[in-house]
């Protein structure tokens, strides 16, 4: 029947929310071909084979993440086409089935919803939220508590000037061209983004470490774009918007993992 629906079969579209620890993955997008690396999408689509869809299930990811980046709640849509006479899966059954067949313990499907056939996980999303976790007073990365490794960025500075960082973050609000932060060869058609909220605040010490053992507790959680932190007592650039190119081209040291906590407003 070519590309058409099998006679009598019903195709249903679902929106799924899922989370993952990105340490073991080459990003969220599927890696095609005979490469050893794998993306989160590879495991999700492998799990979806257990749904026995007439047409192989493909996940359309709402937002891509790079290698090592975690997500508390990313989103995707998928189509499941069951055989004639079989009713669509309920969202609860779909969620349970995907989790049952997932082979990687660092991925979990959180929830599923039935959505219209014209819904698109990427183009229907209205906002994205990022969380950056920094740990101060860590001259060496291996000084981080073992439960915090790969979950925060270790800094040598003993403390950070949170007030200065808050002031700098305020300059990032609004619609701006973030091309200075864009990777060379990025497939994105535009580097213009609107930042609605950016906050910087001290965070609690790691809940996994006894106080006397926590030599490098995560100190600051920062929501927003990637930026260089200000050590205590320093001053942010008074004309910060004109300094973005300098900030983007003079980043030094490893960029630690960050979280994409949620994608909101995925309505039709």
Distance between the termini: 30 Å
**Which residues sit in consecutive blocks of at least 5 with pLDDT less than 50?**
210-215, 217-256, 263-268
Number of H/I helices: 4
Instruction: Name the beta content range.
Output: 25-35%
| Global structural class | alpha+beta
> How much helix is in the residues?
10-25%
Number of strands: 11
Order of helices and strands: EHEEHEEEHEEEEHE
Main beta-sheet annotation:
9 strands, mixed
Q: For this entry, what is the oligomeric state of its chains?
A: single chain
The averaged pLDDT comes out at: 77
Give the overall silhouette.
globular
Radius of gyration: 21 Å
Q: Concise description?
A:
The chain is α+β, with helices and mostly antiparallel strands and 268 residues long. The protein contains 4 helices and 11 strands; from the N terminus they run βαββαβββαββββαβ.
């Amino acid at each position: 029947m070519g590309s058409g629906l099998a006679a009598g079969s019903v195709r249903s579209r679902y929106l799924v929310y899922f989370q993952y620890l990105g340490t073991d993955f080459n990003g969220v997008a599927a890696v095609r071909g005979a490469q050893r690396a794998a993306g989160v999408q590879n495991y999700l689509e492998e799990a979806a084979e257990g749904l026995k869809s007439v047409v192989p299930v493909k996940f359309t990811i709402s937002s891509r993440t790079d290698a090592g980046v975690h997500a508390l709640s990313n989103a995707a849509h998928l189509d499941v086409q069951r055989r004639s006479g079989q009713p669509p899966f309920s969202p609860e059954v779909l969620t349970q089935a995907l989790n049952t067949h997932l082979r990687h313990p660092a991925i979990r499907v959180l929830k599923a919803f039935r959505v219209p056939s014209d819904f698109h996980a990427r183009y229907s999303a209205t906002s994205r939220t990022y969380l950056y976790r920094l740990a101060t007073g860590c001259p060496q990365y291996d000084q981080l508590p073992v439960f915090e490794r790969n979950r925060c960025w270790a800094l040598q500075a003993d403390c950070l000037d949170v007030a200065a960082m808050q002031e700098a973050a305020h300059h990032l609000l609004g619609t701006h061209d973030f091309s200075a932060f864009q990777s060379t060869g990025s497939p994105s058609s535009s580097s213009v983004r609107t930042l609605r909220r950016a906050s910087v605040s001290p965070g609690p010490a790691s809940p996994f470490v006894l106080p006397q053992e926590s030599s490098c507790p995560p100190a600051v959680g920062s929501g927003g774009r990637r930026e260089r932190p200000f050590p205590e007592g320093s001053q942010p650039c008074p004309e910060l918007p004109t300094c973005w190119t300098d900030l983007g081209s003079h980043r030094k040291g490893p960029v630690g993992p960050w979280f994409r906590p949620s994608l909101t407003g995925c309505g039709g």
